[in-house]
Amino acid sequence: MTDRPTAIPPPTMAHPFGFMARFMVLFGIMEYLYFQIPDSLLRDLFYQQGLATPCAAAINFLSAHEHVTATRGILQSRAVSLEIVRGCDGAGPLFLLTAAMLAFSVSWRHKISGIIVGVMLLILVNYIRIIGLYFVVRHHGIWFTLVHSYIVPTMIVVVGCVIFACWSTIGVRRIL
Q1: What ranges do the domains of the chain cover?
Q2: Helix, strand or coil for residue 133?
Q3: Rounded CA gap, 108 and 173, in Å?
Q4: pLDDT tens for each residue of 57-74
């Protein structure tokens, strides 16, 4: 009888339906809590300070002649008025990514680091989205609906999926 090496079975992975159930519950909770926040609080605090002000500064840096101001979550110039509202703030993709990372069976350390990096990347993508939408309205207004409603939301979800795929691959390699 010869000694043949035996394969070591991989660690038990969580059942995919368990992941989906955890993901859907977590995403639902995040969405529910998000819609409990008053619009005025989002507009006056988060949209103004967190989105409109930095985006106006970036637009003015990129194109100084625009003279963009940010008031109550609205990017305003002589030629453009672009309001940031609920649903256009990037919260949905952030919740999708965060819920997926929390639901995935890896260490808490990996989850937390992934959420921090993933959220930062999606926030950066959202800034680019808002700045890009300003220039679309400014120079090709007829494209706004197509870009705002279809192209960019799809792109952000795809970016979130790529972030999750890279992050989960690293997490699974650490388990194995």
Answers
A1: 16-175
A2: helix
A3: 15
A4: 999 999 989 999 999 999
Distance CA 82, CA 60 (A): 15
Contact 135, 142 (CB under 8 A): no
Rounded Cα gap, residues 154 and 14, in angstroms: 29
User: Bigger pLDDT: 93 or 172?
Assistant: 93
Q: Please provide the DSSP assignment of 75-93 as one string.
A: EE-SS-EEE--TTSSSHHH
Q: What is the pLDDT of residues 108-148, one digit of tens each?
A: 999 999 999 999 999 999 999 999 999 999 999 999 999 99
Residue pointed to by tokens 């979130």: 160
**What tokens were used for 173?**
């390699």
CA–CA separation, 85 vs 48, rounded Å? Answer: 10
Query: Cα separations (Å) of 143 from 9, 32, 83, 102, 150?
Result: 53, 32, 17, 36, 11
Query: What pTM does this model have?
Result: 0.85
Task: Report the alpha-carbon distance of residue 91 to residue 88 in Å, rounded.
Answer: 8
Four-residue CA torsion sign, 166, 106, 98, 115: negative
> What percent of the chain is helix, strand and coil (3-state, nearest 5)?
70, 5, 25
